[in-house]
């Protein structure tokens, strides 16, 4: 791989500093850097730093899911290098900016995601294509994301080791010492709580953080997340300021920019925050966007999420927060001006996400190395999947998120739950477990976010629907009260869309969102009993819940996926024994379509509006 050189050095990890060193002042800057609040660009800055950033690429290497003329790792890399080269030049200085300037490039995590494009890397002898693309991007730092742990810590460690160069993966609030492969990478400096980039005479500190929800939404195993994100981040920031570093960026993957806003209010001495995990498209009026992308409103203010979003920290200093959508569709560009004391004086008006386009006036040519080494082999693999037919469907199969699989029954949710149940029953004897009577599929595991059909359903579609490495498991003989608790968890976030919403097979149930929602901790212990599930009847007529009360009777065996059985999405299995029964959920879906359904999905079996398995009351 040909690497682009750059004039900077790194020192990974903020070290413990002797108490005799004095931390930098936390006094707020004298001028509010926000436009219209004293943050004009009159006068020249002492130093200008451009932060180029991305997040949530999630293995969308070939192009944006809704429009392949945009995004794609090869075009993204080309645009990133163009912006970086331009911003480094003293000639880039606009009014109010310094000729002494630097550029840092960061990612907020979720670089890869299990699915058809990542599956190309799982073939014998194949490289990690996402790692190759990451190497060509030449980031200064990458925050750990949640999806990188979906395949477990060992796969993540392999991925980090396979990433060309020496880019550190940052996380300040995680202890990886109990995971040998990750611990070894930490010893080598590839995993660190923070890093320092030297750029044009300045040291820029970068601190990483990950969501405390990681154990319930992914598979970190024995990598332990500290829920005190503020404490972990502030400790790193304090260590950096004690070294005299007065330009500090926090790069986090907290699952939404709202979480970064909360964190910002509790911190001090942070100059820029780069968010990840929420997929928000953040832009000011007039910014060219990828077609059909929209700027959402901030739930807190009701106003559009402009770029940047300003939040006052614990000292009253305004901090810009940015994110850049997802799927390689944008390169975020934040141009920050500093005074001689290291305080942010303004953010340039041209700061904005820059869309990655292959058409029109802003089209960029794909990076030739990324195109030949990543795009072409992945495209060839995916094309093979697309040519393989799993079934034809007489009806559109609804896998949309909201409204959809995270808010209510859908026919695709029913189909996938039926596939789990069929696989559990077919393989139970071979694995020495009872045949399951019901199946549960979390809505968050259904990922296509679209309606498939009517028409042909390809093998590629099954990967798009069920991309994770989730294994089909059978959980024998759960008490009936626990079955109710599982369903209470599934509807506990309603009416909000949530990945824990349960798609079901082998039963019908009703729920009332006006009643008390169940609360559980990350271990599945019920902290507050739920009262939402009102009735639950198995398809053989067995009544499990009547008018909110559990009916006494023998336990029930359940088919589900290992993510849920381990307590993902806070499903209260509470360490119940389970057995993997020889298939992942994508394979279960493919086999169910091709074998059990004979290659055809009928409207009678899977009507568009569902078949009455889940009934909201009131």
From TrEMBL:
Keywords: Hydrolase, Nucleotide-binding, Signal. Residues 391-572 form the 5'-Nucleotidase C-terminal domain. It holds the Pfam family 5_nucleotid_C. Residues 1-31 form the signal peptide. SUPFAM superfamilies: 5'-nucleotidase (syn. UDP-sugar hydrolase), C-terminal domain, Metallo-dependent phosphatases. InterPro entries: 5'-Nucleotdase_C, 5'-Nucleotdase_C_sf, 5'-Nucleotdase_CS, 5_nucleotidase/apyrase, Metallo-depent_PP-like. PROSITE patterns: 5_NUCLEOTIDASE_2. PANTHER family: 5'-NUCLEOTIDASE (PTHR11575:SF24), 5'-NUCLEOTIDASE-RELATED (PTHR11575). Belongs to the 5'-nucleotidase family. This is 5'-Nucleotidase C-terminal domain-containing protein. The lineage of its organism: Bacteria, Bacillati, Actinomycetota, Actinomycetes, Streptosporangiales.
């Amino acid at each position: 791989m040909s690497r682009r050189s750059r004039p900077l050095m790194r020192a990974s990890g903020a070290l413990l500093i002797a108490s005799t060193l004095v931390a930098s002042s936390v006094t707020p800057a004298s001028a509010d850097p926000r436009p219209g609040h004293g943050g004009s660009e009159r006068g020249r800055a002492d130093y200008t730093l451009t932060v180029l950033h991305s997040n949530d690429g999630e293995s969308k290497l070939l192009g944006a899911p809704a429009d392949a003329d945009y995004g794609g790792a090869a075009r993204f890399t080309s645009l990133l290098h163009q912006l970086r080269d331009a911003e480094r030049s003293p000639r880039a200085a606009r009014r109010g900016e310094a000729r002494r300037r630097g550029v840092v490039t960061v990612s907020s995590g979720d670089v890869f995601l299990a699915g058809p494009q990542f599956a190309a890397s799982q073939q014998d002898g194949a490289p990690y294509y996402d790692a190759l693309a990451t190497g060509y991007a030449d980031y200064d730092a990458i925050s750990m994301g949640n999806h990188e742990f979906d395949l477990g810590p060992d796969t993540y460690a392999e991925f980090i080791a396979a990433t060309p160069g020496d880019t550190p993966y940052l996380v300040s609030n995680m202890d990886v010492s109990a995971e040998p492969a990750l611990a070894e990478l930490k010893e080598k400096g590839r995993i660190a709580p923070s890093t320092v980039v030297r750029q044009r005479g300045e040291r820029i500190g970068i601190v990483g953080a990950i969501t405390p929800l990681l154990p319930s939404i992914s598979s970190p195993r024995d990598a332990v997340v500290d829920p005190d994100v503020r404490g972990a981040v502030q400790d790193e920031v304090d260590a950096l300021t004690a070294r005299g570093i007065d330009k500090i960026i926090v790069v986090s993957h907290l699952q939404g920019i709202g979480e970064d806003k909360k964190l910002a209010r509790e911190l001090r001495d942070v100059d820029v925050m780069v968010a990840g995990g929420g997929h928000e498209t953040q832009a000011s009026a007039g910014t060219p966007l990828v077609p059909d992308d929209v700027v959402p409103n901030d739930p807190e203010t009701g106003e559009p999420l402009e770029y940047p979003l300003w939040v006052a920290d614990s000292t009253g200093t305004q901090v810009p927060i940015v994110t850049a959508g997802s799927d390689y569709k944008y390169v975020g560009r934040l141009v920050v001006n500093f005074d001689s004391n290291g305080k942010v004086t303004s953010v340039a008006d041209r700061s904005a996400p820059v869309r990655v386009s292959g058409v029109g006036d802003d089209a960029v040519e794909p990076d030739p190395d990324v195109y030949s080494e990543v795009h072409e082999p992945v495209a060839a693999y995916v094309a093979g999947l697309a040519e393989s037919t799993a079934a034809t469907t007489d009806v559109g199969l609804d896998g949309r998120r909201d409204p959809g699989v995270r808010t209510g029954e859908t026919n695709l949710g029913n189909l996938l739950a039926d596939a789990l149940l069929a696989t559990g029953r077919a393989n139970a004897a071979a694995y020495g477990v009872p045949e399951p009577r019901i199946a549960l599929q979390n809505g968050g595991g259904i990922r296509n976010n679209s309606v498939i059909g009517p028409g042909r359903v390809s093998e590629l579609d099954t990967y798009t629907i069920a991309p994770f490495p989730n294994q089909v498991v059978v959980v024998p003989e759960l008490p009936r009260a626990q079955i109710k608790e599982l369903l209470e968890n599934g509807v506990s976030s309603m009416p909000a869309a949530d990945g824990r919403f349960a798609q079901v097979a082998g039963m019908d149930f009703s729920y009332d969102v006006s009643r008390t929602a169940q609360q559980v901790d990350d271990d599945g212990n019920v902290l507050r009993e739920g009262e939402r599930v009102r009735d639950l009847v198995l398809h053989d007529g067995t009544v499990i819940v009547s008018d909110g009360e559990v009916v006494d009777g023998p336990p029930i065996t359940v088919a589900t996926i290992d993510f849920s059985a381990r307590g993902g999405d806070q499903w209260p299995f509470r360490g119940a024994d389970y057995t993997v029964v020889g298939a992942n959920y994508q394979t279960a879906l493919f086999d169910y379509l091709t074998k059990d359904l004979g290659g055809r999905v009928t409207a009678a079996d899977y009507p568009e509006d569902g078949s009455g398995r889940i009934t909201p009351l009131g």
